[in-house]
Amino acid sequence: MFKGNKSTITTMKKLNKFVGLSIVSVMMFACTTNPITGRKTLQLANDQEIQAMALQQYRETLSKAKVVSGTSQAKSVTNVGLRIKNAATNYYRGIGREADIANYQWEFNLIDDKAINAWAMPGGKVAVYTGIFPITKTDTGLAVVLGHEISHALAGHGNERISQAMVAQYGGAILGSTISNGQLAAIFQQAYPIGAQVALLKYGRSQELEADEMGLYLMAMAGYDPREAQPFWQRMESASSGSRPPEFLSTHPNPDTRRADLEKHMPKALQYYKAAGGKI
After folding, report:
1. Is 149 among the residues known to form the active site?
2. Structural domain boundaries of the chain?
3. Is the distance from CB of 215 to CB of 36 less than 8 angstroms?
4. Rounded to an integer, what distance in angstroms lies between the CA atom of residue 58 and that of residue 41?
């Protein structure tokens, strides 16, 4: 055990207190507020660096997968995705925060895979698997999925996850920006593995709940009936009754929590839907 003189110990205590307060200050400064849900999150990492890594991982993942193009399902993924993206862009522009997503390079791809899954990476890189179509059934059902995934990207959930890992692994080192590109890349790769393993992508439950809420609003803004979200999730829950539930549900809240949350947010979603020309 280290033993020092009184002056040294006092100095160390002051230094520890300073570092602790500094970390808190950095976290407060790096706190980002979601303009749609109001949720505050810690986002320390550089978005441009993360998005560059995401683009590379996305390209590598697609190179190892069978990407479907030209089919009615592939066209639906692109059309529904762009419609929701455009609605989100209009919303951000309307509140003066279009700059938040100006660097996003949206891309929607369909992967030929029986897995019931879909995922999004930072910067707007989205993938949907053919295995989820028996559950989505219609473009509105697909809008539930894509609204959810687009929300993960818009809300900066990737940056949030990486920031949490940065603090956990390196603590005060983040104050002096001493985390190397290699260390950041290692954290990113843990969060977004290459190839087939990206199918195991997991967000935290608080992030999933936010994506549920935000996705409900976005699909409504795009003119898709948000009331179809409940039936979609019920079909998804039925699909999870087997021995191996869909990866899409791996970190999601339990069904009762989701149903209650959707009902709580439905009145606001219906307002967006009505404003988009939907019939209530």
Report:
1. yes
2. 37-275
3. no
4. 24
Residue 127 carries which DSSP code? E
Burial of 176 (0-12, 13-18, 19+ CB in 10 A): exposed
26-64 pLDDT, tens per residue? 444 468 899 999 999 988 888 899 899 999 999 999 999
Out of 149, 228, 237, 247, pick the active-site residue: 149
Q: Determine the average pLDDT of the residues in 182-202.
A: 64
Other beta carbons less than 10 A from residue 100's beta carbon:
16
Structure tokens at 158: 């990737």
Helix (H) / strand (E) containing 15: helix 6-29
Q: What is the DSSP string of 222-277?
A: TT--GGGHHHHHHHHHHHTTSSS--GGGTTPPPHHHHHHHHHHHHHHHHHHHHHTT
Which residue(s) pair with 109 in the sheet?
A: 127
